Every structure is written in C-alpha cells, then in structure tokens.
Amino acid sequence: MEKIIDKHLNLLLELGINGVPMKVEEGMKGSEMDSEGWQKWVPIQSEVTEDEIKDLEHMINVALPDSYKRFLKYKHFYDLHIGECGFCSHPVNNWKKSLNEMILNGYPKEFLLDKGRVPFANWSDWGLLCFDTTKKCENSNYPIVLWDHEVYNDFTEVYSDFESMIYELDDEFELND
Predict the structure, then answer these.
(1) 128, 85 Cβ separation under 8 angstroms
(2) Backbone dihedral angles phi then psi of residue 64, each to the nearest 5 degrees
(3) Which of 58, 72, 65 is CA-nearest to residue 139?
(4) 111-130 pLDDT per residue, tens
(5) Using one digit for the tens of pLDDT, what is the confidence trace for 22-51?
(6) Its pTM surpasses 0.85
(7) DSSP string of the chain?
(8) CA-CA distance, 155 to 150, in Å (whole number)?
(9) Low pLDDT (below 50) residues in the chain
C-alpha cells in the first residue's frame, strides 16, 4: 500500500502539480509563495500518533480500519489522487481539521455519519467514498461505499475494504494510463 501512495505522490511532484493556493505548513514547503498566492508542497513522513487517532475515533464514535490508520500514519500531503479518488488533505499539524471538515462539517451528518457512513475521500466531482460501518466486520475492516451527493440515501458498495481499494484504484489507474 505504501509503495502505491509513494508512486502517486511522486507523480504529482514530477508533473509539478503539487501547489496549493495557501500557505503551506512548515516542514512541507517545496517553494516560497508566488505572486498569485500559490505555494508548492512536498509530502513528508506522518507525525500522526496512535493517541491522535484514538481521539478521532472517539470524536466520531467509530473504530477505524487498521489499514486506514496505517495510511494516516504514513505520509502528510495536501493532495493525493489515485484515479477518481481524491483523499482528504492530510497536512502536518492540520490533518485532523481537514478530516473533521469532511466528516462532521461537510455534507449534513444526518445523510452520512448518522447513517453509519464515514467519509474519507472525494470521488471525482460528484460523490464521496465512505466506510460503511453498518456492516459488522472483523477488525473494523468495513466495505467502502460510494455516495452520490445528489442522491442522499443511495450508497453503492464499490470496494471490499480500504487496502483492497488502494490496490484496485492503482490497477485501474495503470489500465487507463
């Protein structure tokens, strides 16, 4: 899983599309801010701790899959796309704020979190990928569902679990490349 993440982060760097229209966190700066307010960033080793993940789980009242915890503890980034999947921004110092905005302050909680769906990534420009916590799973290894933000009560299972999703997304990307 980590090799796939590195591959797609490195692709952003190689293409030079690792800029954001904001000030980048210290330690992740790839350049100084330009005259239009854009700054390059570079991925760095994650500083997320087990205690921070437990705090997040407590806040959303959901045990996260081990593979997703491993993902959170691997790298910090501002942008990561694997195919149509755009992961929630994960900058050092502000990663939890980004996730909170997606999980708690994005679309109304009654459509997602209150129904047992925990969003963690955007799908193209029309939906979200969510952990489906309504399914009882060993080690919280929930299936991944796709939610179309225009059809609030429709969830389509698209991947069996988070780690499988990463591999399948990369395979699909390779086929389309």
Answers:
(1) no
(2) -85, 150
(3) 65
(4) 999 999 999 999 998 899 99
(5) 999 999 999 999 999 999 999 999 999 999
(6) yes
(7) -HHHHHHHHHHHHHHT--EESSPPPTT-BSS---TTS-EEB--EE----HHHHHHHHHHHT-PPPHHHHHHHTTEEBS--EETTEEEPPB-TTTHHHHHHHHHTSSS-GGGTGGGTEEEEEEETTTEEEEEETTS--GGG-PPEEEEETTSTT-EEEEESSHHHHHHHHHHHHHHH-
(8) 11
(9) none
CA–CA dist 20, 56 (Å, integer): 25
Q: Which residues are registered as beta bridge partners of 74?
A: none
Residues counted in the chain: 177
In order of 9, 17, 65, 145, the CA distances from 44 in angstroms are 10, 16, 22, 29
Name the residue among 151, 120, 153, 118 with its Cα closest to residue 132: 118
Distance CA 138, CA 5 (A): 25
Residue type, 149: H
